[in-house]
Amino acid sequence: xxxxxxxxxxxxxxxxxxxxxxxxxxxxxxxxxxxxxxxxxxxxxxxxxxxxxxxxxxxxxxxxxxxxxxxxxxxxxxxxxxxxxxxxxxxxxxxxxxxxxxxxxxxxxxxxxxxxxxxxxxxxxxxxxxxxxxxxxxxxxxxxxxxxxxxxxxxxxxxxxxxxxxxxxxxxxxxxxxxxxxxxxxxxxxxxxxxxxxxxxxxxxxxxxxxxxxxxxxxxxxxxxxxxxxxxxxxxxxxxxxxxxxxxxxxxxxxxxxxxxxxxxxxxxxxxxxxxxxxxxxxxxxxxxxxxxxxxxxxxxxxxxxxxxxxxxxxxxxxxxxxxxxxxxxxxxxxxxxxxxxxxxxxxxxxxx
Length: 353
Ligand SMILES: C=CC1=C(C)c2cc3[nH]c(cc4nc(cc5[nH]c(cc1n2)c(C)c5CCC(=O)O)C(CCC(=O)O)=C4C)c(C)c3C=C
Ligand SMILES: [Fe+2]
Ligand SMILES: [Fe+2]
Fold this sequence. Notes:
By secondary structure, this protein is α/β, with parallel strands linked by helices. It contains 12 helices and 9 strands. α5 (136-145) links the parallel β3 and β4. The longest helix is centred in the N-terminal third of the chain and has 22 residues, at 41-62. The protein is globular and about 60 Å long. The two termini are 32 Å apart. The relative contact order is 0.14. One fe (ii) ion binds next to α12. Pathway: Porphyrin-containing compound metabolism; protoheme biosynthesis; protoheme from protoporphyrin-IX: step 1/1. It catalyses: Fe-coproporphyrin III + 2 H(+) = coproporphyrin III + Fe(2+); heme b + 2 H(+) = protoporphyrin IX + Fe(2+). It comes from Marinicauda algicola.
């Protein structure tokens, strides 16, 4: 039987021009998953932070033409995914919908578009391989709050084999293209989080470490690896080491730096400005013999293969949360993992389901 299958891609979104930088930031800082202050303090803080932060950030977006490339990048990924799904399951009709959290096309717009399209099945697919309350859970809540149907929901995929192989392949390629330098340190840089978010049971850092463990295992030719965290905002302590520190230390140690974005799957302000300009300048200032930035996964075939497999696996069995291979993976301390909150637990702990 032929089915109409909607695949909803969750992502953060970004401003589409100079005038949307401030409202985009306001939406971000007004998210209770990002700032824990209650109403009406949170919207007041969001107004204040976005007003003061917008001028600096707008200059950075100006380097990318005034807005973020995240929507066009995500549309390319959506097209590649639909083509792969149609080839794998030609009897079905697939359509991908973008659901951005803080700017157009918003999650509520995706809910309306999916309903209008008339899907038989809906798969929610976060473009966040590692689960966080600040990203995937926030998008899932926005989906539900907007009246989105209970759907087949991919929770996370930090060690999905095609995803891991795609990362390892891009790192190896970047190293080869740089002339196979010796004395290399691979910095796996993920977006950071406040320490308090982790203390509340967010599994993101644990899942990032799982990704890095799997990727480094696939790269025996490179033996110096470090996981680090970028993009700190605000006065709270964030998880460490900071990427900027890690770049400085590696440069001072005379390492050729290979910088791989490990929790971003497309290019945007955090890669094109922070990694390509700011941290490159730090590396050069501290005498690094080389600085090679590995591209984000984008439409890398191995990554699209991973998204295709995750979608097809999510279509099996009942509607609901779809943890990796059907089993929750996060240890008990990470109680804010969606799987735990849905009552699914790790098999090897003997807790049962
Ligand atoms: C794994 C992905 C991401 C996590 C985790 C995350 C948490 C997080 N982010 C902020 C604050 C900002 N993030 C901003 C941009 C931005 N963040 C992500 C991803 C994650 N964020 C992406 C993909 C982007 C790029 C958006 C785009 O331009 O396309 C920004 C805006 C830029 C800036 O002002 O520096 C802010 C602010 C917090 C506070 C947080 C966790 C608490
Ligand atoms: Fe962010
Ligand atoms: Fe989990």
